[in-house]
Design brief:
The strands form 3 sheets. The protein has a 10-stranded mixed beta sheet with strand order 18-9-10-12-8-13-16-15-14-19. By secondary structure, it is of the alpha+beta class. Strand 9 and strand 10 form a beta hairpin. The chain is globular and about 65 Å long. It is built from 4 helices and 19 strands. The chain binds fe (ii) ion. Fe (ii) ion binds next to strand 8, strand 13 and strand 16. Fe (ii) ion (FE2) binds next to strand 8, strand 13 and strand 16.
């Protein structure tokens, strides 16, 4: 067989069925102009298509999500991507498990498999290229040498441009049921959890420590989007920029324990968050991560400011 010049196959765990990427999200918000301003200032590449905002990252061809208008902020759906030769097996799995297939949402052109998860959230599995990383995200840090100035002038600090969507954290009524559904149906694996409070799941074909996470609430809902950046400076500069644009509420700088990423969360105009994340742990397709169940006060963050009072408030409840 002739190899396509320059083509490198995505990482894959042979012989096992699981989605490889969180391909796309849809979120509804009450005011698209407000959303456009917030996400543009955050550093994302925001376009418009068919009455929705499109959410991309600069220098990356992937469309990470769409944002439409609705009466209030509400999670719409998540599309997960699978390898083409796995899609029939997924279809058979759904049927064997008695999970009802649904039509795609109005206006969404798709031939993927649509169904509800354990909480009634709309989920799709479709064939798409692997957009989750095949290697650990790079963190740049350069210490100045002796006799050398380390920091740039403040006026010369570049704007923070996230490189890709890292993960989504959802609220769920039942963390145990979320783990059961996303592992048995979508073929993801549990990375770590803290009792029934929070759980982190990764893709088996090589992904960050979490592609999706679930936190306990009395209703489903969207908590945050996380965006990968390349340095601690990127996190700090992004946070400062958002502060200057009036988006002062948030949490950071800090470092998580589960996932290990450095973070700063900026609260969006609807009470949920967008996270600048750097240096998250990576689980290669060839590795079996030893998942653990961690005590609440020893799992959330290694260091950082006090957690804002409404950080885990579900504004969709
Ligand atoms: Fe996160």
């Amino acid at each position: 067989m002739t190899a396509i010049k320059g083509y490198i196959a995505p990482s894959r765990r042979p012989g096992e069925l699981g989605v490889h990427s969180l391909d796309r999200f849809h979120l509804a918000v009450p005011d698209l102009a407000v959303a456009q301003n917030f996400y543009r200032e955050f550093g994302l590449d925001i376009g418009e298509k068919g009455g929705c905002l499109t959410v991309g990252t600069y220098d990356h061809p992937h469309l990470w999500g769409t944002i439409g208008e609705g009466p209030r902020k509400k999670h719409g759906y998540m599309s997960f991507a699978a390898f083409e030769d796995d899609i029939v097996a997924f279809s058979e799995r759904l049927q064997a498990m008695g999970i009802k297939r649904l039509d795609p949402p109005a206006g969404v052109d798709s031939n993927g498999l649509w169904f509800h998860d354990h909480d009634g959230n709309l989920v799709e599995i479709k064939v798409a290229a692997k957009s989750s990383p095949d290697e650990k995200s790079r963190l740049s840090f350069r210490a100045a040498g002796p006799g050398e100035r380390g920091a740039p002038l403040r006026s010369a600090m570049p704007r923070t441009r996230p490189r890709r969507l890292a993960h989504i954290l959802m609220f769920t009524r039942d963390v145990g049921k979320a783990i059961a559904f996303y592992t048995s149906v979508l073929g993801m694996r549990l990375s770590d959890r803290s009792g029934d409070n929070i759980a982190f799941l990764h893709g088996i074909h090589g992904s960050d420590h979490h592609m999706i996470a679930f936190a306990r609430s009395n209703a489903p809902g969207h908590h945050h989007f996380s965006w990968d950046v390349g340095s601690i400076d990127d996190i700090g500069a992004g946070a400062m920029h958002m502060l200057g644009k009036g988006f002062a509420k948030g949490w950071g700088l800090g470092r998580h324990v589960l996932g290990s990423n450095y973070f700063h969360y900026v609260q969006d105009p609807w009470g949920s968050f967008s996270e600048y994340s750097a240096d998250i742990d990576y689980i290669p397709a060839t590795a079996d991560w030893a998942s653990g169940d961690h005590a609440p006060d020893d799992s959330f963050y290694a260091w950082g400011p006090n957690v804002p009072e409404d950080f885990v408030h579900n504004y969709e409840a």
